[in-house]
Design brief:
Blueprint lengths: L4 E3 L22 H11 L3 H5 L1 H9 L2 E5 L5 H9 L3 E8 L2 E9 L18 H11 L9 H8 L2 E9 H4 L5 H7 L3 E7 L2 E9 L2 E3 L12
Antiparallel strand pairs: 1-8, 2-4, 3-4, 5-7, 6-7
């Protein structure tokens, strides 16, 4: 059976909680989370399984329950980038949640789910914050996650040869690759990355299957 080609994932703004997965949850915002949960308060099945659905959202969001919904506490969370809202299923089941998207800062934050929702620029920023030894310093599992959504190539050259007219660097940039340059003495490792326009579903395993 042939492989199905997938375009870059797009989230349906009318998506309900029941349709969200640990992959698609990365495509939504804090406002979407709050809207979905408020709409779901009328769903008896969601009410019975709050923790199940909450676990899915927690794969991409920090969700903290505020026990005392007072102005100072609420403002403190909001000052740190959280969206705060009350989710009321009934008078005996009322939550005040502070919601914030998990930041992707370190290479260890990358997963097969969220790699599909970051740009090439964002990827290179993550790599730049984590590099010591270059591309080869990454574990094979992290490299595989990155390569599932990006074309990546590297070259190590003396500083004065890296930007040579008509060379590898110039050709890659013309092909639409973005570049991260890492200086190593008189040498530079250039890491070229470009987001793949299409993905093959057979090549995108779940993070649950990754060995640590």
């Amino acid at each position: 059976m042939g492989k199905k080609r997938l375009q870059q994932p797009v989230i349906d703004p009318s998506l309900s909680i029941k349709a969200v997965t640990k992959g698609s949850v990365w495509a939504i915002s804090e406002k979407d989370v709050i809207r979905m949960w408020k709409e779901a308060t009328r769903d008896a099945e969601v009410k019975k399984n709050v923790n199940h659905y909450l676990d899915i959202f927690k794969s991409a969001f920090i969700i903290e329950e505020i026990k005392e919904d007072v102005t100072l506490v609420r403002k403190s969370y909001e000052q740190h980038g959280y969206k705060v809202a009350q989710i009321m299923f009934d008078e005996t089941m009322l939550f005040t949640w502070a919601v914030k998207k998990k930041p992707i800062i370190h290479v260890t934050d990358l997963t097969y789910e969220n790699i599909r929702y970051i740009s090439t620029t964002e990827l290179l920023e993550v790599l730049n914050r984590n590099f010591g030894g270059g591309w080869e310093s990454l574990s094979r599992s992290v490299q595989n996650i990155i390569l599932s959504n990006f074309d990546v190539s590297t070259v190590i050259l003396p500083k004065d040869r890296l930007h040579k007219k008509g060379g590898f660097y110039e050709k890659k940039v013309k092909d639409g690759f973005e570049v991260l340059e890492l200086e190593k003495g008189g040498w530079v490792e250039a890491i070229f990355a470009k987001q793949k326009s299409e993905l093959e579903d057979d090549d995108i395993p779940s993070s649950d299957s990754i060995e640590t």
